[in-house]
């Protein structure tokens, strides 16, 4: 497939033009014109790039790419080595950040819900059809300890659980994968019993305790592992692309 055609196909599916983001979405580093082999992964780190080179890939598709708002513009050091490796090997780099978080089919939030047995009700941001944070319900109410165990089993990672002053049972849950911890107060406003994000901040503990909500920090990487994997599977199934997901271990 032509590399620009692949970008157009991904843009059509994910609609990045509808999101105000912190980085460019789409083709970030141009490589070979013809794309046969695609490697997917969470972050365009050197380890993933090295694996793509070893697999003779023509493209890498990630959730966390390059050129973030506020970062230094100079291409030197770590950034230089990553981009140099891509260019020297003709590897296209495609990245989709918020559009992949919120997508209704392959999005990180939807994929997390499927693994935790959550039925999605809507967005925590009222009147925003592309709310970054969403909420839903468990079929059967669980204690905080039971829900923590379910998260650990689904993500293969023990979550941080703060449950002081929280309800005895969890039914309504809000969540936002990755660095979505600051949506916790919105979850409280929407009547959630629990809130899940990937990362946690020092203030999050006090907010959870004082507002009486269960909070689970389940890992940025762990909560966002499945969106890009599902996107790659969609490419393979719907468009016949040769796609391989590579999970670079990250405990955070």
From TrEMBL:
Pfam families linked to this entry: DUF34_NIF3
Binding site for a divalent metal cation 1: 63, 101, 220, 224
One Gene Ontology molecular-function label: metal ion binding
Statement: the UniProt record of this protein carries the keyword Thylakoid: no
Example of a GO cellular component annotation carried by this entry: cytoplasm
Keywords, alphabetical: Hydrolase, Metal-binding
Domain of life: Bacteria
Binding site for a divalent metal cation 2: 64
Record-stated family: Belongs to the GTP cyclohydrolase I type 2/NIF3 family.
PANTHER family: GTP CYCLOHYDROLASE 1 TYPE 2 HOMOLOG, NGG1 INTERACTING FACTOR 3
UniProt-recorded name of the protein: GTP cyclohydrolase 1 type 2 homolog
């Amino acid at each position: 497939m032509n590399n620009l055609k692949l970008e157009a196909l991904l843009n059509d599916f994910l609609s990045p033009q509808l999101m105000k983001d912190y980085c460019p979405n789409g083709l970030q580093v141009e490589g070979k014109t013809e794309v046969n082999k695609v490697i997917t992964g969470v972050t365009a780190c050197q380890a993933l790039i090295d694996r793509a080179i070893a697999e003779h890939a023509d493209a890498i598709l990630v959730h966390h790419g390059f050129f973030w708002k506020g970062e230094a513009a100079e291409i030197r050091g770590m950034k230089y080595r990553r981009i140099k490796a891509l260019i020297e090997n003709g590897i296209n780099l495609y990245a989709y950040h918020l559009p992949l978080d919120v997508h209704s089919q392959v999005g990180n939030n939807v994929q997390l819900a499927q693994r935790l047995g959550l039925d999605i009700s809507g967005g925590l941001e009222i009147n925003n059809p592309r709310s970054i944070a969403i909420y839903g319900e468990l079929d059967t109410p669980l204690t905080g300890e039971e829900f923590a165990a379910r998260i650990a089993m689904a993500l293969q990672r023990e979550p941080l659980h703060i449950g002081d002053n929280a309800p005895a049972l969890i039914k309504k849950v809000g969540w936002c994968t990755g660095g979505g911890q600051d949506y916790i107060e919105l979850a409280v406003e929407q009547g959630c019993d629990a809130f899940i994000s990937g990362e946690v901040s020092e203030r999050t503990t006090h907010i959870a305790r004082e507002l009486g909500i269960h909070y689970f920090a389940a890992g940025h990487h762990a909560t966002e592992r499945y969106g890009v994997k599902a996107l790659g599977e969609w490419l393979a199934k719907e468009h016949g692309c040769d796609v391989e997901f590579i999970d670079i271990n990250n405990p955070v």
